[in-house]
């Protein structure tokens, strides 16, 4: 019989970010009080499932989100750099019109091509690294389930790739809320299902571009 394996991509919980900075890969951004509650809620949602492997982005907010899962399943978490947030020119700035960085002419040259996108890591490169991270998790949990904690844009790009949809998109249309779960189920090496769940719905706000 063909083994069934599921890799769950868990987005991290809400981040303490009162200044609304697009924090990207910057260090030191921890979960908020609500974010810690989201992480605990996600661990409760996973409890009783056949999880045999845990992976995480190296970012603090992702590792903090994985901590309740470590306790729930008594498993170590493996850091995989391929699960990291996408690189972005606007990292460390506020983004948008009005007081945001978009109104400043020195940034305009990074906005010419939304299909690539020109302001950051190309979508195809994100899809490739996330796919390889998922394959690693799938192989580590053959016949069982794995959880990999990552970030909104990489998870969404991987889902678009898995569903054979175009990779460029409007950020406001991503179905990837804070502490949500995007699940990829494989029969052997063949992807057979993509599913989505939002265990923490209603616990906090989703902060747009700053909440990466």
Automatic annotation (TrEMBL):
Pfam name, any one: His_Phos_1
Gene source species: Actinomadura parmotrematis
UniProt-listed SMART domains: PGAM
High-level lineage: Bacteria, Bacillati, Actinomycetota, Actinomycetes, Streptosporangiales
Protein name, per record: Histidine phosphatase family protein
Superkingdom: Bacteria
């Amino acid at each position: 019989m063909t083994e069934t394996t599921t890799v769950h991509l868990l987005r991290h919980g809400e981040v303490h970010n009162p200044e609304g900075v697009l924090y990207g890969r910057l260090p030191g951004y921890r979960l908020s009080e609500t974010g810690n509650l989201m992480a605990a809620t996600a661990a409760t949602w996973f409890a009783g499932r056949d999880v045999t492997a845990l992976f995480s982005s190296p970012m603090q907010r992702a590792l903090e989100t994985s901590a309740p899962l470590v306790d729930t399943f008594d498993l170590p978490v493996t850091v995989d750099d391929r699960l990291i947030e996408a690189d972005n020119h606007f990292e460390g700035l506020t983004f948008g019109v009005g007081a945001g960085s978009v109104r400043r002419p020195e940034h305009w040259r990074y906005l010419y091509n939304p299909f690539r996108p020109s302001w950051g890591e190309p979508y195809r490169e994100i899809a490739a690294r996330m796919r390889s991270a998922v394959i690693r998790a799938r192989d580590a949990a053959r016949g069982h389930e794995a959880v990999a904690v990552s970030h909104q844009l990489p998870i969404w790009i991987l889902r678009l790739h898995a569903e054979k949809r175009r990779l460029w998109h409007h950020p406001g249309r991503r179905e990837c809320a804070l502490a949500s779960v995007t699940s990829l189920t494989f029969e052997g090496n063949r992807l057979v299902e993509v599913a989505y769940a939002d265990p923490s719905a209603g616990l906090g706000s989703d902060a747009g571009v700053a909440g990466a």
